Amino acid sequence: MRSGTELVFLWCGLALIAATFLLMGWLLYMAYFKMDEMLKHLSRSSAIKLRKPMVDGRPMGRLLMLNAIAMMLAFPKKFLADGGLHPEDHKSFPRNLRLRILIPSNAMIVFAMLFMTLWGVGKYMDWIK
User: 6: Cβ–Cβ under 8 A, 6 or more apart, which residues?
Assistant: First the structure.
């Protein structure tokens, strides 16, 4: 028989896994159906030109390109300074598209931290062998 805290732990883990799959589905949707729009808005940026061959139809290549775009949008000062992001591309990138990229990307980082926290709690409480 499981205790109440073990059941809460189990349900939190299952909810986190479900949320991660939903978020991964959203990122795949963005990578397949919005990639052309993103690349159009970042057409002058050298970092995108270098990585463009990655967008070859396979999911991993598209997700890697989406991650590169998310990093450019999350840390524009670094990419503007090293020339990877063109200033006009940065200014003209649509705000709603930027948010649809950055929010799920940041949520994945939060989910990874939550997974590590749940794992740590489970190991500490000896619920995970």
Answer: 127
Cβ atoms of 105 and 54 within 8 Å: the answer is no
By C-alpha distance, which of 62, 65, 28 is closest to 47?
A: 65
Mean pLDDT across the stretch 103-114?
95
pLDDT in tens, 48-60: 999 888 887 788 9
CA–CA separation, 17 and 61 (whole Å):
23
Overall average pLDDT of the 41-52 stretch: 92
Element spanning 88, H or E: helix 87-92
Tokens (6 digits) for 73 = 């949008």
Read off the tokens for 36: 């052309």
Q: How much is the average pLDDT of 59-76?
A: 93
Residue that is written with structure tokens 């200033």 in the block: 87
Q: Report how far apart the first and last C-alpha atoms of the chain are (Å, whole number).
A: 17
Say which residue the tokens 């948010």 belong to.
99
* Rounded Cα gap, residues 79 and 115, in angstroms: 30
